[in-house]
């Protein structure tokens, strides 16, 4: 079956892509929507412009689309992107939705409208075990933004290790945020995964936005 993958460059969409390949799907393209607003309800904002490097490292075709980032208008932008993917042969879409009903339902509704099947392989996975599995199976990623009370902000910009995952889980239990960040507590950028033919190296700078919000902005990638 030919499918497209909604791809943000983060751990969840990379896992969803990984799942699709190993289930035997043929990847027509990756789709990245680049929001004009930082507070997009549907799409990741930090460092999403660099998904082209990830697509190149994996050998997949990437389609990028700008989106307003406004709550309802961005759904129309998503629909246009999926229509193009369908026109190019995709009969389904895979996404990395983990816990957000808003994202999953909107993707499903739009896909049904235009006749695409939907697959959400991460849906309702056990959050803590999922994070452990990612690192154990060779997914390398950096945290590019965080906005949660109690979050270990010293991990931003650092390649996450097994010890870091345990630190995140411990803090999540103590302060009540989601350990896999599905509530928007943090965003990630994958630098290597089993499908990558080469590893990405990133450099960047930390920017403190407020007492409980920090961002790692990538300034160099190769």
TrEMBL record:
Higher taxonomy: Archaea, Thermoproteota, Thermoprotei, Sulfolobales, Sulfolobaceae
The protein's name in its UniProt record: Diphthamide synthase domain-containing protein
GO molecular function terms noted in the UniProt entry: diphthine-ammonia ligase activity
InterPro entries recorded: Diphthami_syn_dom, DPH6/MJ0570, MJ0570_ATP-bd
Domain Diphthamide synthase span(s) in chain numbering: 1-205
Organism: Saccharolobus shibatae
Example GO BP: protein histidyl modification to diphthamide
